[in-house]
Write a structure and sequence with these properties.
Length: 315
Protein backbone atom coordinates (compact mmCIF):
# COMPACT_ATOMS: atom_id res chain seq x y z
CA UNK A 1 0.00 0.00 0.00
CA UNK A 2 1.09 3.57 -0.69
CA UNK A 3 1.98 5.95 2.12
CA UNK A 4 -1.18 7.33 3.69
CA UNK A 5 -1.93 10.99 2.97
CA UNK A 6 -4.56 11.99 5.52
CA UNK A 7 -7.04 14.85 5.56
CA UNK A 8 -8.51 15.40 9.04
CA UNK A 9 -11.94 17.00 9.52
CA UNK A 10 -13.13 18.25 12.92
CA UNK A 11 -14.01 21.29 14.99
CA UNK A 12 -14.27 20.99 18.84
CA UNK A 13 -11.90 19.93 21.62
CA UNK A 14 -12.94 16.28 21.25
CA UNK A 15 -11.43 16.30 17.75
CA UNK A 16 -8.20 17.98 18.93
CA UNK A 17 -7.26 15.02 21.11
CA UNK A 18 -7.57 12.69 18.12
CA UNK A 19 -5.68 14.99 15.74
CA UNK A 20 -2.90 15.37 18.30
CA UNK A 21 -2.50 11.59 18.58
CA UNK A 22 -2.14 11.34 14.78
CA UNK A 23 0.46 14.13 14.74
CA UNK A 24 2.40 12.54 17.61
CA UNK A 25 2.50 9.25 15.71
CA UNK A 26 3.93 11.19 12.76
CA UNK A 27 1.01 10.39 10.46
CA UNK A 28 1.14 12.40 7.24
CA UNK A 29 -1.60 15.01 7.77
CA UNK A 30 -1.77 16.85 4.45
CA UNK A 31 -4.72 19.05 5.41
CA UNK A 32 -7.17 19.96 8.16
CA UNK A 33 -10.78 20.93 7.43
CA UNK A 34 -12.59 22.82 10.18
CA UNK A 35 -15.46 25.26 10.73
CA UNK A 36 -15.17 28.90 9.60
CA UNK A 37 -14.26 31.51 12.22
CA UNK A 38 -17.33 32.97 13.90
CA UNK A 39 -18.04 35.96 16.15
CA UNK A 40 -18.79 34.87 19.72
CA UNK A 41 -19.50 36.37 23.12
CA UNK A 42 -20.71 39.83 24.07
CA UNK A 43 -17.88 41.58 22.24
CA UNK A 44 -18.56 39.49 19.10
CA UNK A 45 -14.85 38.75 18.88
CA UNK A 46 -13.87 36.37 16.10
CA UNK A 47 -13.55 32.86 17.52
CA UNK A 48 -11.43 30.14 15.92
CA UNK A 49 -12.33 26.49 16.39
CA UNK A 50 -10.27 24.38 18.78
CA UNK A 51 -9.04 22.33 15.82
CA UNK A 52 -7.93 25.44 13.90
CA UNK A 53 -5.96 26.73 16.89
CA UNK A 54 -4.17 23.38 17.18
CA UNK A 55 -3.55 23.15 13.41
CA UNK A 56 -2.04 26.66 13.35
CA UNK A 57 0.27 25.72 16.21
CA UNK A 58 1.44 22.64 14.27
CA UNK A 59 1.63 24.56 10.97
CA UNK A 60 -0.79 22.26 9.21
CA UNK A 61 -2.61 23.25 6.01
CA UNK A 62 -6.11 24.49 6.93
CA UNK A 63 -9.30 24.81 4.87
CA UNK A 64 -12.42 26.45 6.35
CA UNK A 65 -15.26 26.07 3.84
CA UNK A 66 -18.66 27.62 4.52
CA UNK A 67 -20.12 25.36 1.83
CA UNK A 68 -18.80 21.82 1.42
CA UNK A 69 -20.22 21.67 -2.11
CA UNK A 70 -18.40 24.81 -3.27
CA UNK A 71 -16.31 24.20 -6.40
CA UNK A 72 -13.30 26.11 -5.10
CA UNK A 73 -13.27 24.08 -1.87
CA UNK A 74 -13.61 20.80 -3.79
CA UNK A 75 -10.68 21.74 -6.04
CA UNK A 76 -8.55 22.71 -3.03
CA UNK A 77 -9.44 19.42 -1.34
CA UNK A 78 -8.52 17.43 -4.46
CA UNK A 79 -5.21 19.31 -4.68
CA UNK A 80 -4.22 17.87 -1.27
CA UNK A 81 -4.15 14.42 -2.93
CA UNK A 82 -5.34 12.66 0.23
CA UNK A 83 -6.01 8.92 0.05
CA UNK A 84 -7.73 8.73 3.47
CA UNK A 85 -10.02 11.13 5.30
CA UNK A 86 -10.76 11.03 9.03
CA UNK A 87 -13.79 12.80 10.48
CA UNK A 88 -14.26 13.60 14.18
CA UNK A 89 -17.12 15.83 15.36
CA UNK A 90 -17.66 17.62 12.06
CA UNK A 91 -20.71 18.25 9.94
CA UNK A 92 -22.40 15.92 7.46
CA UNK A 93 -20.34 15.51 4.28
CA UNK A 94 -21.72 15.51 0.74
CA UNK A 95 -21.06 12.31 -1.18
CA UNK A 96 -18.52 13.84 -3.57
CA UNK A 97 -16.37 14.67 -0.52
CA UNK A 98 -16.47 11.34 1.32
CA UNK A 99 -15.94 9.23 -1.83
CA UNK A 100 -12.92 11.29 -2.92
CA UNK A 101 -10.02 9.41 -1.23
CA UNK A 102 -8.87 6.00 -2.47
CA UNK A 103 -9.10 4.33 0.95
CA UNK A 104 -12.34 6.01 1.96
CA UNK A 105 -13.49 8.34 4.73
CA UNK A 106 -14.01 7.07 8.25
CA UNK A 107 -15.63 8.72 11.25
CA UNK A 108 -15.08 8.40 14.99
CA UNK A 109 -18.35 8.38 16.94
CA UNK A 110 -18.63 8.53 20.74
CA UNK A 111 -21.00 5.59 21.22
CA UNK A 112 -21.31 1.89 20.52
CA UNK A 113 -23.11 2.14 17.19
CA UNK A 114 -25.83 1.58 16.16
CA UNK A 115 -26.90 2.92 19.56
CA UNK A 116 -26.88 6.69 20.05
CA UNK A 117 -26.54 7.83 16.48
CA UNK A 118 -26.70 11.61 16.33
CA UNK A 119 -25.19 14.84 17.58
CA UNK A 120 -25.05 14.32 21.37
CA UNK A 121 -24.19 10.67 22.16
CA UNK A 122 -22.25 11.38 25.37
CA UNK A 123 -25.06 13.46 26.87
CA UNK A 124 -27.83 11.02 26.01
CA UNK A 125 -25.98 7.93 27.26
CA UNK A 126 -25.65 9.51 30.72
CA UNK A 127 -29.14 11.05 30.66
CA UNK A 128 -30.59 7.60 29.97
CA UNK A 129 -28.69 6.04 32.87
CA UNK A 130 -26.46 3.77 30.77
CA UNK A 131 -23.64 1.97 32.59
CA UNK A 132 -21.48 1.53 29.51
CA UNK A 133 -20.79 3.26 26.22
CA UNK A 134 -17.76 3.40 23.96
CA UNK A 135 -16.31 4.63 20.68
CA UNK A 136 -16.74 3.39 17.12
CA UNK A 137 -14.89 3.96 13.87
CA UNK A 138 -16.94 3.41 10.71
CA UNK A 139 -16.87 4.26 7.02
CA UNK A 140 -19.18 7.13 6.12
CA UNK A 141 -22.16 6.49 3.84
CA UNK A 142 -25.23 8.46 2.70
CA UNK A 143 -26.98 8.51 6.09
CA UNK A 144 -25.95 9.75 9.54
CA UNK A 145 -23.80 7.31 11.57
CA UNK A 146 -25.02 4.22 9.67
CA UNK A 147 -21.88 3.11 7.80
CA UNK A 148 -19.97 -0.16 8.10
CA UNK A 149 -18.18 -0.49 11.46
CA UNK A 150 -14.40 -0.89 11.44
CA UNK A 151 -13.57 -1.07 15.18
CA UNK A 152 -15.29 -0.52 18.54
CA UNK A 153 -14.07 -0.16 22.11
CA UNK A 154 -16.26 -0.23 25.23
CA UNK A 155 -15.99 2.12 28.21
CA UNK A 156 -17.82 2.15 31.57
CA UNK A 157 -20.03 5.02 32.68
CA UNK A 158 -19.58 5.58 36.41
CA UNK A 159 -22.43 6.76 38.65
CA UNK A 160 -20.58 10.01 39.41
CA UNK A 161 -19.70 10.77 35.77
CA UNK A 162 -20.87 13.96 34.14
CA UNK A 163 -20.44 14.86 30.47
CA UNK A 164 -17.05 16.47 30.98
CA UNK A 165 -15.53 13.43 32.72
CA UNK A 166 -16.88 10.94 30.18
CA UNK A 167 -15.98 13.23 27.24
CA UNK A 168 -12.33 13.29 28.32
CA UNK A 169 -12.12 9.51 28.77
CA UNK A 170 -13.79 8.85 25.41
CA UNK A 171 -11.50 11.37 23.70
CA UNK A 172 -8.46 9.43 24.92
CA UNK A 173 -10.02 6.07 24.03
CA UNK A 174 -11.18 7.43 20.66
CA UNK A 175 -7.71 8.69 19.80
CA UNK A 176 -6.31 5.21 20.44
CA UNK A 177 -9.05 3.63 18.33
CA UNK A 178 -8.40 6.01 15.42
CA UNK A 179 -4.71 5.08 15.48
CA UNK A 180 -5.60 1.36 15.46
CA UNK A 181 -8.00 1.98 12.58
CA UNK A 182 -5.34 3.83 10.56
CA UNK A 183 -2.90 0.95 11.16
CA UNK A 184 -5.47 -1.62 10.01
CA UNK A 185 -6.30 0.36 6.88
CA UNK A 186 -2.60 0.85 6.12
CA UNK A 187 -1.96 -2.90 6.53
CA UNK A 188 -5.13 -3.80 4.60
CA UNK A 189 -6.06 -6.43 7.22
CA UNK A 190 -9.47 -5.35 8.46
CA UNK A 191 -13.04 -6.51 8.05
CA UNK A 192 -16.03 -4.24 8.41
CA UNK A 193 -19.33 -5.13 10.07
CA UNK A 194 -22.58 -3.82 8.65
CA UNK A 195 -24.78 -2.09 11.21
CA UNK A 196 -28.08 -3.78 12.01
CA UNK A 197 -30.94 -1.64 13.27
CA UNK A 198 -32.31 -2.91 16.58
CA UNK A 199 -35.87 -2.58 17.85
CA UNK A 200 -34.59 -0.84 21.00
CA UNK A 201 -32.51 1.73 19.09
CA UNK A 202 -31.77 4.87 21.14
CA UNK A 203 -30.93 8.08 19.29
CA UNK A 204 -28.80 11.06 20.37
CA UNK A 205 -30.76 14.01 19.01
CA UNK A 206 -29.25 17.48 19.07
CA UNK A 207 -29.96 19.12 22.42
CA UNK A 208 -32.41 22.02 22.40
CA UNK A 209 -33.28 24.38 25.26
CA UNK A 210 -36.59 22.58 25.85
CA UNK A 211 -34.77 19.23 26.00
CA UNK A 212 -32.91 20.41 29.10
CA UNK A 213 -35.89 21.22 31.38
CA UNK A 214 -35.93 19.11 34.54
CA UNK A 215 -39.09 17.10 35.24
CA UNK A 216 -39.20 16.75 39.02
CA UNK A 217 -42.05 14.19 38.76
CA UNK A 218 -39.64 11.53 37.52
CA UNK A 219 -37.94 9.02 39.87
CA UNK A 220 -34.88 10.30 41.75
CA UNK A 221 -32.30 8.27 39.80
CA UNK A 222 -33.69 9.48 36.46
CA UNK A 223 -33.59 13.12 37.57
CA UNK A 224 -30.03 12.63 38.87
CA UNK A 225 -28.91 11.06 35.57
CA UNK A 226 -30.65 13.77 33.55
CA UNK A 227 -28.80 16.56 35.40
CA UNK A 228 -25.33 14.99 35.18
CA UNK A 229 -25.96 14.14 31.52
CA UNK A 230 -26.27 17.86 30.80
CA UNK A 231 -23.40 19.03 33.02
CA UNK A 232 -21.45 21.17 32.44
CA UNK A 233 -22.98 21.82 29.01
CA UNK A 234 -25.55 22.85 28.02
CA UNK A 235 -26.89 22.59 31.59
CA UNK A 236 -30.16 21.19 32.97
CA UNK A 237 -32.48 23.95 34.16
CA UNK A 238 -35.66 24.63 36.10
CA UNK A 239 -37.57 27.66 37.38
CA UNK A 240 -37.20 28.49 41.07
CA UNK A 241 -40.45 29.92 42.47
CA UNK A 242 -39.45 31.84 45.59
CA UNK A 243 -42.28 34.04 46.96
CA UNK A 244 -42.95 36.48 44.08
CA UNK A 245 -39.67 35.74 42.31
CA UNK A 246 -39.28 33.37 39.36
CA UNK A 247 -35.59 32.60 38.86
CA UNK A 248 -34.32 30.47 35.97
CA UNK A 249 -31.76 28.13 37.55
CA UNK A 250 -29.19 25.83 35.95
CA UNK A 251 -28.24 22.83 38.06
CA UNK A 252 -24.81 21.28 37.53
CA UNK A 253 -23.91 19.05 40.44
CA UNK A 254 -26.17 17.05 42.73
CA UNK A 255 -26.29 14.14 45.15
CA UNK A 256 -28.88 11.36 45.02
CA UNK A 257 -30.81 10.59 48.22
CA UNK A 258 -33.32 7.72 48.09
CA UNK A 259 -35.89 8.12 50.85
CA UNK A 260 -39.65 7.81 51.31
CA UNK A 261 -41.64 11.01 51.94
CA UNK A 262 -45.02 12.60 51.20
CA UNK A 263 -43.83 15.88 49.73
CA UNK A 264 -44.93 17.14 46.34
CA UNK A 265 -42.21 16.77 43.67
CA UNK A 266 -40.32 20.03 43.27
CA UNK A 267 -40.74 21.05 46.92
CA UNK A 268 -37.56 22.63 48.32
CA UNK A 269 -36.14 21.83 51.75
CA UNK A 270 -33.39 24.23 52.74
CA UNK A 271 -31.25 25.37 55.65
CA UNK A 272 -28.39 27.85 55.82
CA UNK A 273 -26.04 25.22 54.41
CA UNK A 274 -28.00 22.95 52.08
CA UNK A 275 -30.87 22.74 49.66
CA UNK A 276 -32.61 19.64 48.42
CA UNK A 277 -35.55 19.06 46.11
CA UNK A 278 -38.23 16.43 46.62
CA UNK A 279 -38.81 13.89 43.85
CA UNK A 280 -40.98 10.75 43.75
CA UNK A 281 -38.79 8.42 45.76
CA UNK A 282 -36.30 10.68 47.46
CA UNK A 283 -34.44 13.94 47.15
CA UNK A 284 -31.98 15.59 44.80
CA UNK A 285 -29.48 17.46 46.97
CA UNK A 286 -28.18 20.49 45.06
CA UNK A 287 -24.43 21.09 45.24
CA UNK A 288 -23.63 23.53 42.40
CA UNK A 289 -26.15 25.79 40.65
CA UNK A 290 -26.30 28.99 38.62
CA UNK A 291 -29.06 31.53 39.19
CA UNK A 292 -30.08 33.64 36.19
CA UNK A 293 -27.65 36.53 35.76
CA UNK A 294 -25.15 35.04 38.23
CA UNK A 295 -22.13 32.77 37.92
CA UNK A 296 -22.03 29.07 38.79
CA UNK A 297 -21.65 28.67 42.56
CA UNK A 298 -21.68 26.16 45.38
CA UNK A 299 -25.17 26.01 46.90
CA UNK A 300 -23.85 27.06 50.32
CA UNK A 301 -22.55 30.30 48.77
CA UNK A 302 -25.88 30.89 47.00
CA UNK A 303 -27.77 30.46 50.29
CA UNK A 304 -25.60 33.13 51.94
CA UNK A 305 -27.26 35.71 49.67
CA UNK A 306 -30.67 34.19 48.94
CA UNK A 307 -33.52 33.77 51.41
CA UNK A 308 -35.53 30.65 50.51
CA UNK A 309 -39.22 30.97 51.39
CA UNK A 310 -41.06 28.16 53.18
CA UNK A 311 -43.25 27.45 50.14
CA UNK A 312 -40.43 27.76 47.59
CA UNK A 313 -40.40 25.12 44.88
CA UNK A 314 -38.99 24.22 41.49
CA UNK A 315 -41.34 23.72 38.57
Amino acid sequence: MKELRIVFMGTPDFAVGVLDSLVRQQCNIVGVITAPDRPAGRGRRINESAVKKYALEKRLTILQPTNLKDDTFLRNLEDLKANLQIVVAFRMLPKNVWVMPEYGTFNLHASLLPQYRGAAPINWAIMNGETKTGVTTFFIDEKIDTGAIILQEEAPIYIEDNVEALHDRLMTLGAQLVLKTVERIKAGNFKTILQKDKTDLKLAHKLQRETCVIDWNRPAKKVYDFIRGLSPYPGAWSTLYNEKEEILTKIFKTELQLEQHNLKPGTILSSKKEMKVAVKDGYIKLLEIQLQGKKRMAVQDVLNGLQIAQNAHFG
